């Protein structure tokens, strides 16, 4: 699967970290985490008209402060 081979999960995590840091500066750490409930990823090259392919979601509770701040290091 191209999504896993290309490490799009890492790209998703980087964007989540940046979004978390931005929201943390605006609202504080607790409220920032409440605003990140999960992600939808639209894999445009994998989308086919009339089908649900190419759309992925992740709502499995990995959006914790410890995961967002340490995951990349």
From TrEMBL:
Name the record gives this protein: Uncharacterized protein
Lineage of the species this protein comes from: Bacteria, Pseudomonadati, Spirochaetota, Spirochaetia, Leptospirales
InterPro entries membership: PDDEXK-like_dom_sf, Restrct_endonuc-II-like
């Amino acid at each position: 699967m191209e999504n896993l081979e290309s490490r799009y999960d890492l790209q998703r995590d980087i964007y989540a970290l940046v979004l978390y840091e931005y929201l943390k500066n605006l609202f504080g750490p607790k409220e920032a985490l409440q605003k990140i409930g999960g992600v939808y990823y639209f894999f445009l090259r994998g989308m086919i008209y009339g089908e649900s392919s190419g759309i992925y979601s992740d709502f499995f509770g990995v959006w914790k402060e410890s995961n967002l701040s340490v995951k990349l290091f």
